[in-house]
Every structure is written in C-alpha cells, then in structure tokens.
Amino acid sequence: MAGPDEAQATTPGDTPSADTSSADTSSADTSSGDRSTGDGDRVAYYDTVLAALPDPESFTVLVVAGARREEVAQLLGVDLTRPVAWEDIGMDELDETGWALVEIEGGVLAVEPTGFGDPAVETLRALSAGGRAAAVLTSNIEAFERFGAARNGELLFDAAEFMYIEDPEIVPAEIRPLFDLVWDDLKGEPVIGEDGPNSSAVAMAMSEVVTRVVVTADDMAAVTGAPYFSAPSLVYAGSDE
Asked: What CATH number is associated with residue 140?
C-alpha cells in the first residue's frame, strides 16, 4: 500500500480531454431539482448516496463513463460465471473479493465491499481508454482512503491516502476546489474542534467532475443489491510512477 505522500497526477494544464466521439461520457441531467451544482451541495448529495452502502467504512466504488458492464468486468478480472455471497466476501480468501456491477445513465457503477479490491493503476488507465473516463474511491479497515481518476487512458490523479498528500499542486484544477475541502496539511497547524465534510462524499463528488456521471441513491441501492461475482483482491500497490 502506498504511503500518504505517494501520489501521481498530471499537471492541471495537461489534463487531457475525453474523446466523446468514441464513447459517451456525458452525464445525466444535473440541473434537476434533486441536486445543486455547488460544491457543498454536491458533497451533501453524495452523503445521501453513500448511505445506501451496506458498510460505509469498507468499500470500493468505481465509476466508468462510456463503458458497458461486461467491458468493466473483464478489465477488473471479474468472473461473471462465479457468483459469491456478499456476506462471504473477504472472510476466508484475502486475495479474492467480489464485485457487483450495473449499467447506469452514462456508464457503469461497480462496488466491492472490503476496500481492498480496488483496481491497479494500469487497470484504471485501461478502464478510461478509448475516450472513456474512470474514477475509484475506497475506504477500508486500515483507514486508507484512495482516490484515483483517469481519462482517455491517461492518469489524472492517484493517491492511496488522497487527503494527506504533501503537494496539493499536483491535484488537477477541475477537482481542486473539492479536494481542498478535505486536504489535511500535515505540516501545518492542527485544526481542533472542526468537523469537515465526509471525505468519501467529497471523493464521489470528484468522481462526478471527472466522469460527468451523476450517481444517484437509486443507482447505489441497485448495485449493492445486485449479484456479486468473484474477482482478485489486493492488486493495487500504489501509484506506479
């Protein structure tokens, strides 16, 4: 697992744009009355979305814009012929987990329930190839909270403990305002008595910015209630560059 200062990103000015001619990375209509586009409102919105997770402290959430369920499953190494019971995942085989995947408006939403099954960096790149975009967030019992994002086969950002990176200047400009809501400057003065926003909700909001896919509470309820299928775990070892 990578340390808090191990992160990978392109510089904000070099962030590539998705080629929407080869894949639809447009979002659902975000102007509807159920969600405002302000950063604070966006984070509050994703607080309610994440409430649908069975365990809000152990999970991986993956959003892939412009993809189909079978494509995402193949790249994750998910065996769609081997269903696994949610309550059995992570109990015996540490190197095996389970993913549930559903198609939603704009792409695919996938979850795994341990927070240790998140994709390797090269897989995240592959998930975003061909004009797609992908974002992953995790939380697990070791208190690691990863956020990673890629677009058009290029890594935009990745950190195993995204809130504690040393240099916030590596964060792409498009997600920097959200990132700043939870960044903890370990070299600065400690802030006592202030409860900040839910870091996982912030990561979901950053995922929306990168992928332009709006995940709804109904989407999250649908994927957590979908069948889980066997896949390898412990494949992420931090940023590879």
From this structure: 3.30.70.1270
Q: What is the DSSP string of 75-121?
A: HHT--TT-EE-GGGTTTS-TTEEEEEEEEETTEEEEEESSS--PPPH
Edge-to-edge strands, sheet with 154-159: 7-9, 154-159, 147-151, 133-139, 59-65, 107-112, 96-104, 228-232, 83-84
Any domain includes 131: yes
pLDDT for 194-235, tens place per residue? Answer: 567 999 999 999 999 999 999 999 999 999 999 999 999 999
Q: What's the first-to-final CA gap in the chain, in angstroms?
A: 14
Q: How many domains are there within the chain?
A: 1
Domain assignment of residue 17, yes or no: no
Q: Which of 31, 14, 236, 213 is nearest to 147 (CA)?
A: 236
Residues 6+ apart with CB under 8 A from 32: none
Tell me the whole-structure pTM to 2 decimals. 0.82
Strands (E) across the chain are located at 7-9, 59-65, 83-84, 96-104, 107-112, 133-139, 147-151, 154-159, 228-232
User: Considering the domain boundaries, does residue 241 fall inside one?
Assistant: no
Domain of 121 in residue numbering reads as 7-12+22-184+195-232
Per-residue pLDDT reduced to its tens digit, 12-35: 333 333 333 334 443 334 333 344
The Cα–Cα gap between 28 and 5 comes to 34
Per this entry, what is the length of the chain?
241
Question: Do residues 38 and 46 make contact, with C-beta atoms less than 8 angstroms apart?
Answer: no
Does residue 119 lie in a domain region?
A: yes
